[in-house]
Amino acid sequence: MDIELKTLTARLLAHRVVNRGDPLARRALLDDIFRHELDRRLAEVGLRLVENPYAEHIAVTLLPPMMEPVFGADDSWLNNNLGLPRDGVALLVILWAQIILPKRERQIARVEAGHENQSDMFGAQKPLETGETVSTGVSEDALYADFGKALGGRTRFNANLGRLANLGFVVRRNRMLLEGPMLDLMIDYSQMAPRIIEGALADVLGRRQALAPDGAADGMEAR
Q: Highest taxon of the source (predicted)?
C-alpha cells in the first residue's frame, strides 16, 4: 500500500488532478483504510484531498489552517496562488456560475428522479451523473459581450481566458468554453452557490426586473 500511496500523492502534486476512474483514485474513494492513510500523509504537508461525487476528477488543496501562512494576511493577502489577477479571478467565478451551477442542477435533478423511480435494491450504489453528458459550454463571444468591458477589455479578457485554460479550469474549443478538470473542484459549491444565487445574482436579477418594461423580465432566461 505504501508505494500506491506515494504514487497517488506524487501524481496529485505533479498533475494537479487525477481522473476519478483511475484505479488509485477509485481506491482512495472506496477503501476507508487507504483513504485514511492518504488523508494523514496529505495533512502532514498542509493539504487535503478534494473530491465530490459529481466531479470527474480529484485534486488536492490547502487545509484551512494553512490558508493564512500560504496566502499571507492583511495587506499582503493573496487572493490565489495561481498567479491570477483580480479580473482573472472574477472571470473564473463567472465561468463557474455559468457552467457548474446549471450542471449541478441537472445532476441533482437526475439523481432525485432516479431515487423516485428506483426499484432495484442496489440502485443507491450506482454512480452519479458526471461529465459532458450534463455539462454545457459557454460562448466566448456572448461572455465577452456580457462582461468583457467590466473585465478590462478584449486584451485582458483573452489573456485571462488563456491563463484559465492553461490551468485546467476551462477548455477552449471553436470559440466555446467547456468545463476543464479543475473547474468543479477548486471552488467550494456549498459556499459559493448560495452567495451567487442568493446574493450577487439575486441583486442583478432584481435590478434588471426593476429596469425592465412591464412583462419583459418574465421572458428573460439565464444563459
A: Bacteria
